[in-house]
Design goal:
Elements (H helix, E strand, L loop, with lengths): L1 H24 L11 H59 L3 E11 L14 E10 L5 E14 L2 E2 L5 E2 L15 E3 L4 E3 L3 E4 H5 L8 E13 L7 E13 L4 E3 L2 E7 L1
Length: 258
């Protein structure tokens, strides 16, 4: 009897294990219904990972779109800034101070450098440039210097070849006080003397001298971010009729702003 009972017990245990294996094979595929906690945790972890991936994709799409939008906006802003800058430069060009030489005065003087009236003997001339602000705003911190430079004519280089060139204006050791020249304001420079003898030697085709008048000026305008203006200039004083006080002042070198 005992052997029979043991045999039945082993069969019952085998059938129980077989039934349990069948039950395990029939588990639901969805992790939340799994009987084991580790399976359910795995299910939650996969859901979380999927949601995280989805959120990452959405965030990346939003960032890409935002980047394109910001890029377009930045490009538009750059275009607006460039247009504003160009408009400001145009406004400055139209409104800035501009100093121009409008005249070279030449006043005849007597033996003692006094002013004379027509008909009196001329012993020389007081000569000087006249400046005018032809711009639309003030010129500030204006300073300038100039010279009368009488040279042998024709000038010759070290090899004896004739040459003509305007001398470089010499900077004075003591600069004049800076001025403000308002719009349309005239500002005559301090005049200097040209002797009758030098003028006579520069007349006509047989001239043995040439008379240069050259100078330099500099100033600022009212716009703080514009450059400091510098101008070199040079003219030739050409006497045509000394007794009638007739001179011409052709530009020897165009005014050049640095």
């Amino acid at each position: 009897m005992r052997a029979v009972d043991e045999y039945k017990a082993r069969n019952a245990a085998r059938e129980a294990r077989h039934a349990e294996n069948k039950n395990l094979q029939k588990k639901e595929p969805w992790w939340f219904k799994q009987p084991l906690p580790i399976d359910r945790f795995t299910g939650w972890l996969m859901v979380f990972t999927g949601l995280l991936f989805l959120a990452t994709v959405v965030s990346a799409a939003i960032l890409i779109k935002t980047d394109f939008t910001l890029g377009d906006q930045a490009e538009a802003i750059r275009g607006q800034l460039k247009e504003m800058k160009n408009q400001r430069l145009l406004t400055i060009a139209q409104s800035r101070a501009t100093i121009a030489r409008v005249e070279m005065v030449h006043i005849p003087i007597g033996e003692n450098d006094e002013l004379i009236v027509p008909g009196q003997k001329i012993y020389g001339w007081q000569i000087g440039p006249v400046w005018k602000n032809v711009g639309a705003t003030d010129a500030i911190d204006f300073i300038g210097w100039w010279n009368i430079d009488v040279r042998p004519f024709p000038l010759r280089d070290a090899n004896g070849n004739a040459r003509v060139e305007c001398p470089i204006p010499m900077r004075p050791s003591i600069l004049p006080s800076p001025l403000i020249i308002s719009r349309d304001q005239i500002s005559p420079a301090v005049q200097k003397k040209l002797s009758f003898e030098d003028a006579k030697d520069a007349v006509g085709q047989n001239a043995i001298k040439i008379i240069y008048i050259n100078g330099h000026l500099e100033y600022d305008d009212v716009f703080p971010d514009t450059k400091h203006h510098r101008l070199d200039w040079c003219v030739q004083a050409y006497p045509s009729d000394l007794q009638r006080n007739v001179f011409s002042f052709p530009r020897f070198k165009e005014e050049t702003e640095k």
